[in-house]
Design goal:
CATH superfamily of the domain at 262-400 in chain A: OmpA-like domain
Structural class of chain A: alpha+beta
CATH architecture of the domain at 262-400 in chain A: 2-Layer Sandwich
Strand content of chain A: 5-15%
Oligomer: heterodimer
Order of helices and strands of chain A: HHHHHHEEHHEHEHE
Largest sheet of chain A: 5 strands, mixed
Shape of chain B: elongated
Number of helices of chain A: 10
Structural class of chain B: mainly alpha
Number of helices of chain B: 5
Order of helices and strands of chain B: HHHHH
Helix content of chain A: over 70%
Distance between the termini of chain A: 218 Å
Number of strands of chain A: 5
Strand order of the largest sheet of chain A: 1-2-5-3-4
Distance between the termini of chain B: 82 Å
Strand content of chain B: under 5%
CATH topology of the domain at 262-400 in chain A: 60s Ribosomal Protein L30, Chain: A
Largest interface: A-B, 40 and 42 residues
Shape of chain A: rod-shaped
Largest sheet of chain B: none
């Protein structure tokens, strides 16, 4: 058994090495030279059809060259000389033909493949270009579509927004209508309330006005009263003042009258006192007493004082002593006989003589007594008769009674 | 059992013959030149480029072919079989280039399809948007 195993191993080893050695022969021996040449021609023809004459010139040329060599080798192998060669040589020639034809076939197939590859590459390039164009177009179209969809979406949104707005508007309108209604109701109520309020206000105002009127009336009455009282008081005051004024006036008047009365009484007393002086004629004037003494009772023919004349002037001096504040004016008068200038000088002389006697002998202040002569200018009787002229020849002592 | 024994013996004989033939081939083979090595390296580089171009996704059969031929080239190098190495390297390079071209084509086709689908969707979108 062990022997068989060793033998089998050896046989297997030999078989493997035999296969390795004989493999080329088996490969090349698959087809006959004619078949391989035909296959090479077919391959070259296919390559030509595939455009190898333009696309794969070198490979096609190589294939043709190999085919040519194969055909030549085939012809050589089948020549008359070859027929007489040994089987081994025939076999070698066939192998050579198969080899050359195989090379031609492979080169032809390669030329076909390269040619087709060129065409395919061109077509691929074109297709890729088309694809790129299409894809660009797709991108553009998608972009447009997207834009359109966006626009549609925007439109849809706008539409939805519009509907929403419409709904909102409708709701707003409803709300506005409701509010308007509520507002109208509120206004109506407000109007009613306002009316009520106004009525109340009116009533209140009327009441207020009435109250105010009453108050004003009261105030007016009070004011009237006050005015009346004031007026009354004013009137009374005025009356009082008038009465007071009247009283004051009357009082003043009374005082004046009393003063006048006193003056009159003084004048009366003075007049009575003056009337009591012998040879003196006294008469009352306006706030003065005029005492008249005839010249014949006072002077001599030389215009000197006679003793009787001095006695009369002593009486006048006593009278003036009784009224120390009174002033006296001695005024001489003549009749119209003679010249006026002489009469004037004579009258002044006689007035001056009287003044000098009163100052010198009766101690009458010189300041109280003044003297003047008026000549015959102020006669009291006619100068046509001797009695008249005797009355005109006189000396008047005018005593001012205003200041007792 | 007897059949099995005979089969095993026959196979062993066959492989022995093959092994002898291989050893003979190796003995006859030329040495591999630097340029042939470069071709092998280029083939590997091309395969790598094809893989980067998503060859395993868009052109798995061609990738497989290139890988197989690289393995064959590797085997041929170990014999060494310069002619076989060179052929396998060139075929590997050619299949790797084919795988790369096919992968790029299929990638473009797929992208084109996707783009066209997207384009159709875009058109539909545009129509929809237009409506």
């Amino acid at each position: 058994m062990e022997k068989y195993k060793d033998a089998s191993r050896k046989m297997l080893f030999i078989l493997i090495w035999g296969l390795i050695i004989l493999l080329p022969l088996t490969v090349l021996a698959e087809d006959t030279p004619v078949m391989v040449i035909e296959a090479a021609k077919l391959a070259i023809d296919q390559a030509r059809k595939a455009g190898a004459e333009q696309q794969a010139v070198d490979d096609l040329s190589a294939a043709k060259s190999w085919l040519s060599q194969a055909e030549k080798a085939y012809e050589a192998a089948h020549s008359i000389m070859a027929r007489v060669s040994t089987a081994k040589m025939k076999r070698a020639r066939e192998e050579e033909v198969i080899y050359l034809a195989t090379m031609a076939k492979v080169k032809g197939l390669t030329a076909e493949a390269k040619s087709k590859k060129q065409m395919t590459a061109a077509k691929l390039k074109e297709t890729q270009k088309d694809l790129a164009d299409y894809q660009s177009a797709i991108v553009v179209m998608k972009e447009k579509l997207r834009e359109a969809e966006d626009a549609k979406e925007i439109q849809a949104k706008a539409e939805a927004e519009r509907k929403h707005l419409e709904e909102s508007q409708r709701m707003a309108d409803e709300m506005e209508a409701r509010k308007r209604k509520e507002l109208a109701e509120a206004e109506r109520k407000t109007a009613e309330l306002e009316a009520i309020k106004q009525r109340e206000v009116r009533e209140g105002r009327l009441k207020d006005e009435k109250r105010i009127a009453e108050r004003e009336k009261e105030t007016s009455q009070a004011k009237l009263m006050e005015v009346q009282v004031g007026a009354q008081r004013a009137k009374e005051t005025q009356e009082i003042r008038a009465k007071e004024e009247k009283f004051a006036a009357e009082k003043e008047k009374l005082a004046v009258m009393q003063t006048k009365l006193q003056a009159l009484e003084q004048e009366k007393a003075m007049l009575i006192a003056a009337g009591k002086i012998p040879k003196v004629t006294a008469e009352a004037g306006d706030k003065k007493i005029i005492m008249t003494i005839l010249t014949i009772d006072l002077f001599t023919s030389a215009s000197e004082l006679t003793p009787a004349g001095k006695k009369i002037l002593d009486g006048v001096g006593d009278f003036l002593k009784s009224y120390p504040n009174s002033k006296v004016l001695t005024r001489g008068h003549t009749d119209s006989t003679g010249k006026a200038a002489a009469n004037q000088a004579l009258s002044e002389k006689r007035a001056q003589k009287v003044r000098e006697y009163l100052v010198a002998y009766q101690n009458v202040s010189p300041g109280r007594v003044t003297a003047e002569g008026v000549g015959s200018a102020q006669p009291v009787a006619t100068n046509a008769s001797a009695a008249g002229r005797a009355l005109n020849r006189r000396v008047e002592l005018i005593v001012i009674t205003g200041e007792p | 059992m007897l059949f099995m024994k005979r089969s095993i013996l026959l196979g062993a004989a066959l492989f022995s013959l093959l092994f002898v033939a291989a050893l003979t081939g190796i003995a006859w083979a030329d040495a591999i030149s630097p340029s042939q090595e470069q071709e092998f390296v280029d083939a590997k580089g091309a395969l790598e480029a094809a893989r980067k171009a998503e060859g395993e996704k868009f052109a798995p059969s061609y990738i497989k072919q290139a890988e197989d031929f690289l393995k064959i080239a590797g085997s041929a190098r170990s014999i060494p079989d310069a002619a076989g190495f060179s052929r396998a390297s060139r075929l590997a390079r050619a299949y790797a280039d084919l795988a790369r071209a096919s992968a790029e084509l299929n990638a473009d086709i797929e992208m084109l399809a996707t783009t066209q689908e997207t384009l159709l969707k875009a058109k539909a979108e545009i129509d929809r948007l237009k409506k």
